[in-house]
Amino acid sequence: MDGANGAPVLAARYSAAFTAYLADRGESALGAAYDLGREAVAAQLSVMDLAEAHHAALRAAKVHDDATLALAADFLRESLSTFETVHRGYLEVQEAARLEHEYVEQLRALADASVAINLSLTVEAILQLTADAAREILHSARATVAVLAPDPRLRPLTATSPPRLGGGDPQPARLQAQLTGRGKELGMVEVIDAPDRTFTLRDEAVLTQLAQLASVAISNAQLYDRERTIARTLQRSLRPGGLPPVHGLSAAVRFRPAGEGIELGGDFYDLFPAGDGAWTALIGDVQGKGPDAAAVTALARHTMRAAAAYESRPSGVLALLHRALREQTGDEGRFCTVCYAHLRTAPNRVTLDLACGGHALPLVVAPDGSVTPVGQLGTLLGSDIDPLLTDVSVELGPGEVLVFYTDGVTEVRRRRQEVFGHNELVALLKTCAGLPPDAVAERVEAAVMAASEGRLRDDMAILAFGPTPQPKETDG
Q1: Average pLDDT over residues 155-161
Q2: Strand order of the sheet with strand 249-256?
Q3: Rounded to whole angstroms, how far apart are CA atoms 428 and 212?
Q4: 218 falls within a domain
């Protein structure tokens, strides 16, 4: 039989088998009903097709008495048993497919949650994402995540989904999973639902997986936060809090660490008294990043501050720094570039001696808009070769501004292309004619941040200074 022509064929065979059963009334004749039901299922006929065949057989046999009707009911029931078995199997397969689909969807949602959670850098964001994911994946009424505060004196951090909790049921169904990291208990994630909800082993496994990935993210975020705090503290300690006031000198500084400030950079600057009424202004850059670079930065600043008390020649101070770097950094080596100025102020004038050890030459911005590099290039400090250092005398007159800068200003790249370099810096400074040092430093910083789209790849330091304008004397 087939689906198109199977119904008439089934009706004819059903009538013949039914007539034979009424005559025989034995088990073998009744077995023919089961075979007919199985053939109907194989031919993709419906229960209605089988029922119509049965009614046609009843009419043909002219069955009216109760005893024969009971026999007819037995025959129909036997033929329908195959349909019942098939239907029950279909429902079981359908339920298994539903559960499998639900589990696949849970795993997909878990993968999406993993991506979002691992992209978050703060514990607070991770907790909220975890709570939202737990509620959504397990289709529960709400979820709560709590982690112990690093300081036991502080309250635990918590997040709930939805954020505002209602009254809920007095005894809801609950499922919990522990948050652990580096062998320590971090907290717990809990989902809550109606009292008649029964959480399955699969629900427990999914929540445990979510708790494990959240635990890793929370541990990493806590470690990142500690490192960021340490880095910021060290960076503050390696830079003066603010420039000291210097009579006759207007000075300004801008400093921005690269990235999130979690990795210690090597840019530094300073302005301090050098004795006998003179001052020292400097800017430098240490090779590399991290704790080693920070240690060299501290060594450089302290060495130059100590040497400036008895050595007025910039080249002499840098030579001492070179020897200190060679003695302290060992076989690995750690290099440093410095632009160092020993300066004195006078009314409307600043005179200075300048030496550059491997650092870019500073630029003088004149009132007429011209921009001129001053000094003489020297060699790197801390290398195996004794540095070539030259002192150059410079005088800044009224309206002139000297700009020190690090390579974070002139090596701004985006998609592997330089978008702000030395030429762009010079062009910008030409527009700063007549501006005070603070305005000049502000413009340079703004240009670099715009060119880098706010994402610096290297520290940026700018130190600008010039003579403080003196009021013009008027004839009495």
Answers
A1: 84
A2: 249-256, 460-467, 401-405, 363-365, 371-373
A3: 52
A4: yes
